[in-house]
Amino acid sequence: MTSHFQYGVSLYSYTDDFGTVMDLEDAFYHVSETGSTGIEILGETHLPAYPQLETAWLDRWFGLLDKYRLEPTNFASWIDTDIQRRRDMTVEEGARQLTTDLELASRLGFKFVRPKFGVIDEELTPHPIWEGCVERVLDLAAKLDIIIIPEIHSPTPIRHPVVEGYIDFIQRTGTKHFGLLIDTGIFQDRPLPFWQHETPEMRDGAMSFLNGIKVPVEQLAEVIEYTPFIQAKFHHIDEELHDHNIPWEKVIPALKSLGYSGYLSSEYEGKRDPWVAIEQVRRQHALIRKLEREWEQANPSKPKEQRDA
């Protein structure tokens, strides 16, 4: 039988709404209204007393999970390697920060932690301490049953030394508690609208990735075995359910063909006027569910006896 995707939403999608026209329960409500089962948060953004967890807030968190029948998916973490001007963060300091976030994530019920290490170039190569930091916390991740998943995010493509380094780490350590988070923005194949104050000259330089780095979806096959979680990045879907930047009509069949059955967690990163994100996330879920349904209808599962023949 064909496995279905799991659907979720990152509260990052509601940036600018959250804390102004939307509180925590509003966010839960709008996530559940999409038919999602998973909710993703940013630790430093959505925990009001980060890195502390107040008892009243914790009680409310679990109450809302029960009320809206949602499960925690991915906890976004930052390892600020350049937080001090006079020196970089050490491996030991980074490991302590990652330990803090793993323990927070565990208390909240999350199964994934996405650490964002400081980068050293425009291709988002993480600071070299990443490997030592992660290796120091692998036993804790195993104890907590959490998978650490650094993000493959534009302008970093799939075929890149960063990705090779992560896969080499998995193979060297043999760990089941480290993997890849694929951000679907890497498949963007049409330019984003110009930002305020942005000039065409900027698009020819460091900001050229905003035109899309156009990673072929076929390359998913090279990393899918290491990918337990996907952030479904998008920027604008119109009333006809046409995405102006991400080729979902290619992405979804590729994922279905590869047997992916993990989360697609919506990450809207478009226009930030009040309430726009709510409708955009709804449209994305309608579009992806439609494409998944069409693929399954065109590729019905064979009976088990035929598969085994």
Could you please describe the fold and organization of this structure?
The structure is a single chain. By secondary structure, the chain is of the alpha/beta class. It has one domain (6-308): Divalent-metal-dependent TIM barrel enzymes (TIM Barrel), CATH 3.20.20.150. Helix content is 38%, strand content 14%. It has 10 helices and 9 strands. It has helices at 24-33, 43-46, 55-68, 91-108, 129-144, 161-173, 200-203, 248-257, 276-298, 304-308, and strands spanning 6-10, 38-42, 71-79, 112-117, 147-148, 151-152, 181-183, 229-234, 263-268. Strands 5-4-3-2-1-9-8-7-6 form a 9-stranded parallel β-sheet. α1 links the parallel β1 and β2 (38-42). The longest helix has 23 residues, at 276-298. It is globular. Mean pLDDT is 95; it is low at 303-309.
